[in-house]
Amino acid sequence: MSVPPGLGIVLTMDGIDRQFDEHSSERADEDDGFLRDIWYFAMPSNELKRSTKFGKTLLGDPVLFARRSDGSVYALRDICPHRGIPLSDGRMVGDEIECCYHGWRFEGGGACTCIPSLYEGQDFEVSRVRVLSYPVREFLGGIWIYMPSDPRQTDPVVEPPNIPQIGSAPNMTERMLFPSHIDHAVIGLMDPAHGPFVHKSWYWRSSKSIKQKEKAFGPSDYGFCMLRHPPSTNGKAYKLLGGEMTTEIRFQLPGVRIEHVMAGRHQMIGLTTVTPIKAQVTEIHHMVFWTMPWLSLLKPILRPIARQFLGQDRDAVTKQQRGLSHGPTLMLINDSDVMAKWYFRLKKTYGAWRSGGPEFENPVKETTLKWRS
Ligand code: FES
Ligand SMILES: [Fe+2]
Q1: Residue 107: what pLDDT?
Q2: Which of 16, 25, 162, 364 yields a CA-CA distance of 20 to 30 A from 49?
């Protein structure tokens, strides 16, 4: 068989002409700095209606999401294994997806179910054609996806983040794209020292409100935790909640922050998820769950405040790109920057485990961090 150079079609033993495109090995050479073999937040549930599909790039990979008529969700690599057209350009036929080019059909598990061009009696086992199917889970109003490092090993090695359940879906969701690598988005969002400078506003902070902070931290699932404590008194918004109040903030790989506020008999959860779309584009979702019915009345006020907050973070990261484009050496010092150091250490430890090193062991130790913010 003669093949034009670069196309690289190989005739495999099973008689299927397959393009030689080992996606994983291609990725291994150009290290994108994304953690794999872990769960990422993909999208809010309400963005995927029943019997519809949606194509989205995650970690540089094209992914097709589809929801069956019974409400369940699946995700496939958004590239038709026949000749590479995105499956998301096709249509749903029942619960399956039909490629727009030659009509091959795939079920949610990734197996081909129909090749319309096969002639009667042709000896070809359709179900042996497969497209990568990603594990997905849906909970608390969000769809999560497991991004494997090896497309042949898609059994999750970890569970998705464990988020306290205080409602079935967020009361409020904001989404924003940051023009940066996930690492800068994550360490920018977890960093308390920028608060009085980036989030200046009359109802929240000013640089005059800087105070010394001292917080106890410890390891938690694939991350670290700011142990439960009464919240800082200099955030006026906290006072609105009323009652005896405590907060716990957890961070976990790859980029999930869970702030759990208990206020008297009520609770509030702020869930921030950071998902790489590609090298320099990162998607942030900020979701808030609460149990106090009266807080829902304030949504028209809270929503613009949340957007403003996230927008301030995005603006800082956007300006930062101008400096980063010159490849400067950066610094992390031993104040609240220690959290960013932990992030990189956690990531390295996890990455080493997944590429054959020792089993993940949390490198974070119980400690108290001090800083002024
Ligand atoms: S490219 Fe999808 S069916 Fe041919
Ligand atoms: Fe911020």
Answers
A1: 98
A2: 162
- The closest alpha carbon to 205, from 318, 339, 312, belongs to 312
pLDDT at position 28 over 90: no
Residue 178 and residue 118 share a domain: no
204 three-state secondary structure = coil
Distance from C-alpha of 1 to C-alpha of 15, rounded to nearest angstrom: 13
Amino acid 160: pLDDT: 98
| Mean pLDDT rounded to a whole number for the chain | 89
Find the helix or strand (DSSP H, E) in which 257 lies.
strand 256-263
Question: What's the whole-number mean pLDDT along residues 43-48?
Answer: 98
- Which ligand approaches the C-alpha of residue 83 most closely? 1
Q: Can you tell me the distance from the alpha carbon of 286 to that of 193, in angstroms, rounded to the nearest whole number?
A: 20
165 domain-assigned = no
- Are 127 and 182 part of one and the same domain? no
Residues 260 and 334 in one domain: yes
- Mean pLDDT, range 130-159, rounded to an integer: 97
Per-residue pLDDT at 29:
47
Predicted pLDDT of residue 238: 60
Report the pLDDT value the prediction gives residue 230, as an integer from 0 to 100: 85
Of all ligands present, the nearest one to the C-alpha of 103 is 1
Tell me, yes or no, whether 117 and 219 share the same domain: no
CATH of the domain at 251: 3.90.380.10
CA-based angle 354:145:91, to the nearest 5?
135
pLDDT of residue 22: 33
What residue ranges line ligand 1, CB within 6 angstroms?
80, 82-83, 85, 99, 101-102, 104
Give the position, in ligand 1's atom list, of the atom nearest the Cα of 85. 1
Share of the chain above pLDDT 70, in %: 87
Look at 130 and 20; give whichever has higher pLDDT.
130
Residues 143 and 277 in one domain: no
Residue 189: which domain range? 172-372
Q: Are residues 205 and 106 in the same domain?
A: no
For residue 205, the model assigns a pLDDT of 65
Query: Domains in the chain: how many in total?
Result: 2
> Residues 113, 249: one domain?
no
Q: Where are the alpha helices (H) located in the chain, listed in sequence order? A: 23-29, 182-190, 195-198, 236-239, 293-297, 299-324, 338-354
Which residue from 64, 101, 115 has its CB within 8 A of the most atoms of ligand 1, so it is best to mutate?
Answer: 101
